[in-house]
UniProtKB/TrEMBL annotation, chain A:
Matching PANTHER family: TRICARBOXYLIC TRANSPORT PROTEIN
Protein name: Putative tricarboxylic transport membrane protein
Pfam families, per database record: TctA
Domain (DUF112) ranges: 18-439
Transmembrane regions: 12-34, 41-66, 78-99, 111-133, 145-161, 168-188, 194-214, 319-338, 358-377, 389-408, 414-444, 465-487
Keywords carried by this UniProt record: Membrane, Transmembrane, Transmembrane helix
UniProtKB/TrEMBL annotation, chain B:
Residue intervals of the DUF1468 domain: 10-145
Regions that span the bilayer: 96-113, 120-140
InterPro entries: DUF1468
Name of this protein: Tripartite tricarboxylate transporter TctB family protein
Species this protein is from: Franzmannia pantelleriensis
Top-level taxon in the UniProt lineage: Bacteria
Keyword Transmembrane helix annotated: yes
Keyword annotations of the record: Membrane, Transmembrane, Transmembrane helix
Pfam families (alphabetical): TctB (PF07331)
């Protein structure tokens, strides 16, 4: 295998491949930075255009867009509190407060380095551990997925914010919002009130942009027309250099990358869950957990390395077993088939140059992020903050409108976004954390579907949720998180 | 209004939302009712400590938490003007066209929020709308509401 891997390196370093990697990474950063546009859409639009190209060039573009968009999503998340992609939710927690404190440049630099490191670790995992890790995915059944979703939801609800009960209420509100629409299993309508619009449920992106992006824009609008951000935000060169960042964040990057790789191999889990779990773990291990959410760069480092580490590892089940773990992996399989290659275990023996070349391309694009993301995109986008508040507010609102409108081409989505914006503004002022709401919308349906699948498979035997070893491990981890949080709360109460 | 009153009212609101969710959920078909019932009941359950703590603080007169919370809206005039402009923008968008409405929206809201440099406002608006047009209409070819002067 390692011989095939080495033989594929010159293929990945061909001029055509390198050009496609640079173009793909730049397009990916741009796509990720624009809310409403996502890498799935960009790759889907681009694939038919690559029909006449060599498969290595086509896959180079895919690799560039995929890794570039994951970092690109962090740019509006840090500068404007708008997650460019759902995976950038956790980046907003500390990225935007850093911008408000005048450390926007440092936050972007941290995000860029963290994305690159996460991407590199993930690509290395794909290169070296793919066949072994693929077997792990087969051990996960519906009950394990149910517990993964519950773990993500409950741990974030308890850890984010000051009061656990408010976090849980926010999470449950998200779960209820996620219930609206046609039930995927029975086909029954739930909470639609006879309205056609609600039959399809609420689009995640609309809820996300409404809850997260509208409240800070309204707060910005309420301030007098002056520079809303600290002038130091413009300085991308602020803070440590690359080696300083490595020295400071390597434990966070190691933990988050490992989390991202593990989440990535689970089909359907996605970068958003990887980022939130990594953030959660970084906060839990920190000596100053209260500083998270107020502009702690470790939070940005954890979230970004976590979501980028999910990228290449999500390709493991698709390349080794032919089972796509996410939509992009499905598109990669589509790209391989367009070029006459059959995904699955035989792919490694029949077309080693293409498959191992693709692994090298994922590694190279992760490295390119430091150059293209750090030196060009970050400096360019940081200039956004120079705009006066009175112009930043309407231009941001137009950007949100175009992002939301292009999702379904429906104006009603804009009203819904505004309504969620008002809800987010109110919850903010009532000191309810917003992250668990979004997480509830995201993980609620995942938990429900897997719970019901378990019940269907095991004929309503509830003990199955507690009898499988992996499920028990996750339950034990969840219990440990809850107990450690309760212990901390009790100790801080004793101190005060 | 103090944070204690806000906690009390938000706790009551969550209690009611949870109860309604569970009550409506009980009628759903078979296992489609599991999660609605569970989520609604849990929401009501988690609302109770919030209501209990805030009512106890109010009855005992203990300050617990922030005695005076930040205002719900810092500057009602600017807040309402922004919301009003957004609503007008969304209503007119499908009739007048995306790029025209967006340009007018940026110009008007910038003026409403206190930007008094016409050259800066017009310059940034033109550059911004041109970039959007280039990206969405020419490169990505995304369908957006057609301009009124181009509609046949």
């Amino acid at each position: 295998m390692f011989e095939s891997l080495l033989n594929a390196l010159p293929v990945a370093l061909q001029l055509g491949s390198l050009v496609s990697l640079v173009v793909g990474t730049l397009v990916g950063i741009l796509i990720g930075a624009l809310p409403g546009l996502n890498p799935v859409m960009a790759i889907a639009l681009m694939l038919p255009l690559t029909y006449g190209f060599d498969p290595v060039i086509a896959l180079g573009l895919v690799a560039g867009i995929y890794n570039g968009s994951m970092y690109g999503g962090s740019i509006p998340a840090i500068l404007l509190n708008i997650p460019g992609t759902p995976a950038a939710i956790a980046t907003t927690f500390d990225g935007y407060p850093m911008t408000r404190k005048g450390q926007g440049g440092l936050a972007l630099k941290t995000a860029c380095w963290s994305s690159a490191i996460g991407g590199i670790v993930s690509a290395l995992a794909l290169m070296t551990l793919a066949p072994m890790l693929a077997k792990v995915t087969l051990a996960f059944g519906p009950s394990e997925y149910f517990w993964v979703a519950v773990f993500g939801l409950v741990s974030i609800a308890v850890l984010v914010g000051k009061e656990a009960s408010k976090g849980m209420l926010s999470a449950l509100l998200g779960v209820i919002i996620g219930l609206v629409g046609v039930d995927a299993i029975s086909g029954a309508e739930r909470y639609t009130f006879g309205t056609l619009y609600l039959v399809g449920g609420f689009e995640l992106l609309i809820v996300l942009i409404g809850l997260y992006a509208i409240p800070p824009v309204l707060e910005m609008a309420e301030k007098p027309n002056a520079s809303y951000f600290n002038a130091d935000s413009f300085r991308v060169s602020a803070g440590d250099g690359g080696f300083g960042l490595i020295r400071r964040y390597w434990p966070t990057w190691a933990r988050s990358s490992l989390t991202g790789v593990c989440v990535g191999i689970l089909p359907g889990a996605g970068g958003n869950l990887a980022a939130l779990l990594s953030y959660n773990e970084a906060k839990r291990r920190a000596s100053d957990p209260d500083s998270f959410g107020t502009g702690n760069p470790v939070g940005v480092a954890a979230a970004e390395s976590g979501n980028s580490a999910d990228n290449a590892s999500a390709m493991i089940p698709s390349l080794t077993l032919g089972i796509p773990g996410n939509l992009i992996a499905a598109l990669v399989l589509g790209a391989l088939m367009i070029h006459g290659l059959q995904p699955g275990p035989q792919l490694f023996t029949r077309s080693p140059d293409v498959v191992f070349g693709f692994m090298w391309q994922l590694l190279l694009t992760a490295m390119l992020l430091l150059l293209l993301g750090g030196m060009i995109a970050t400096r360019l986008f940081a200039q956004i903050l120079r705009m006066p508040t009175a112009l930043l507010v309407p231009t941001t609102l137009v950007l949100m409108a175009i992002g939301i409108y292009t999702v379904n081409g429906n104006v009603v989505d804009l009203y819904v976004m505004l309504a969620f914006g008002m809800l987010g503004y109110l919850l903010n002022r009532l000191a309810f954390p917003l992250a668990p709401v979004v997480l509830g919308v995201l993980l609620g349906p995942m938990a429900e579907q897997n719970l019901r699948l378990s019940m269907l498979i095991y004929q309503n035997d509830w003990t199955v949720l507690f009898s499988r070893p992996i499920s028990l491990g996750i339950v034990a981890l969840l219990t440990a998180v809850l107990f450690s949080q309760a212990w901390r709360a009790w100790r801080s109460q004793q101190h005060s | 209004m103090s944070m204690t009153y806000r906690d009390l009212f938000s706790g009551l609101a969550f209690l009611i939302i949870g109860a309604i969710t569970a009550w409506m959920g009980k009628d759903f078909y078979d296992d489609a009712a599991y999660v609605p019932l569970g989520a609604g009941s849990l929401m009501s359950l988690f609302a109770l400590p919030l209501i209990w703590r805030s009512s106890r603080r109010l009855l005992v007169g203990s300050p617990g938490g922030q005695a005076v919370a930040t205002a719900l809206v810092d500057h009602p005039g600017r807040f309402l003007a922004t919301l009003g402009c957004c609503l007008v923008y969304y209503v007119t968008l499908p009739h007048i066209g995306f790029y025209t409405t967006s340009a007018v929206f940026v110009l008007v809201l910038a003026a409403v929020l206190g930007e008094r440099r016409p050259k800066v406002v017009v310059g940034i608006t033109v550059v911004f709308i041109t970039l959007l047009y280039g990206l969405f209409a020419m490169v990505l070819r995304r369908p957006l509401p057609v301009e009124f002067f181009l509609a046949s």
